[in-house]
Design brief:
By secondary structure, this protein is α/β, with parallel strands linked by helices. Helix content is 37%, strand content 17%.
């Protein structure tokens, strides 16, 4: 079975850019909400009623269109538990989120990994051709982790028109808050016309609540009801629910922080381009360096500069967007990679 590898931890003089985390702690109002929710001798609200109501206000959907779970990867697992099993197939792009092979294997289904295009984008045509009578679900990842590319609304609508309506299509939008491309898809806007579509989202990235594990699904109430039934009861602690509610209450401050991280991202990309890199256009809080066989050697160079990156052997290096102070050592490391290794800059 494929094992999910967590990004390496960082030492006191290093920047942890290996897990696409928000480098900033939760907002003061969120910390206050956490501190007020210390009645941990009681079971949590199994229906996450307050958070679901808040998400309904935030998305414009009714509460029966929303399911809350312990992180978006668990939402994906619950979806597959409901629709797929031995003898079935699940299609996803590759390389993409490393959790996909794990949740597919746990469901008992067969993984159909469709390689990305040379531009590191989804090969939607090949994914559509991969559909068989055994296909039960398809994952789309936008922005794609680890390459950062987005799918456009036009692309997704074209793809959905090709896929039979009885196949579940999950659009994984963990990094949607960092997207600034007006043509990029927003799964929320497509749900009404496509009842087989589900959007999976998380509080881990933009909201900086990765350690509390809160994710949610948006979709057709019939599917959402099954998602809830497939999950373990009371799996999201009240503390996590309260923090997520407080973070939505402070959404303007959250967006201000995200805007700053996007500006840091733009500085990193500009610096890499000045060095000669031709990196894929990223719309997430990370950048992808397609280094192929030089990936592990490049990862060691980044580590010497205090940058803990995520190395995918024989494929590339994904570097998260972190604190302002991380930009200079990141770019210094990238420059040394260029000068000391034989690499194709893109």
């Amino acid at each position: 079975m494929p094992r999910y590898r967590q990004g390496k931890s960082a030492g006191p003089d290093e920047f942890k850019l290996s897990s696409n985390e928000n480098p900033y702690p939760p907002l003061p109002s969120v910390i206050a909400a956490i501190e007020s929710e210390l009645e941990i001798n009681r079971y949590p609200d199994g229906s996450a009623s307050e958070l679901t109501a808040k998400l309904a206000d935030f998305t414009g959907l009714s509460p029966d269109h929303i399911a809350v779970g312990p992180g978006s990867i668990t939402i994906l697992q619950q979806l597959l538990a409901a629709v797929a099993g031995p003898g079935d197939e699940v299609i996803y792009p590759w390389r993409s989120f490393e959790g996909y092979p794990t949740v597919v294997t746990l469901s008992g289904a067969t993984a159909i990994a469709v390689p990305l295009l040379d531009t590191f984008e989804h090969d939607l045509e090949a994914m559509a051709h991969a559909v068989t009578e055994r296909t039960k679900a398809i994952f789309l990842c936008t922005p794609n982790n680890p390459t950062g590319n987005v799918l456009t609304t036009e692309q997704v609508e074209w793809f959905l028109a090709l896929v039979p309506s009885d196949i579940l299509v999950v659009i994984d939008e963990a990094y949607i808050d960092f997207v600034r491309d007006p043509a990029a898809v927003d799964g929320l806007t497509l749900l009404e016309d496509h009842p087989n579509l589900v959007s999976a989202r998380t509080f881990s990235k933009a909201h900086g609540l990765a350690g509390l594990r809160v994710g949610y699904a948006l979709g057709n109430p019939e599917i959402i009801d099954v998602v809830k039934a497939a999950g373990l009861p009371m799996s999201v602690p009240n503390l996590a629910q309260r923090a997520a509610v407080a973070s939505l209450d402070a959404i303007d401050d959250v967006r201000e922080r995200v805007d700053h991280l996007v500006s840091v991202r733009n500085r990193v990309i500009a610096g890499l381009v000045d060095q000669g890199w031709q990196v894929p256009p990223t719309h997430a809080n990370f950048v992808w360096l397609p280094l192929g066989a030089a990936s592990e050697a490049a990862g060691e160079i980044f580590a010497r500069h205090g940058i803990v990156a995520r190395v995918f052997a024989d494929s590339g290096v994904r570097v998260g967007i972190g604190e302002d102070e991380s930009v200079e050592p990141l770019l210094n490391a990238a420059s040394e990679v260029v000068t000391s290794l034989t690499v194709d800059l893109g």
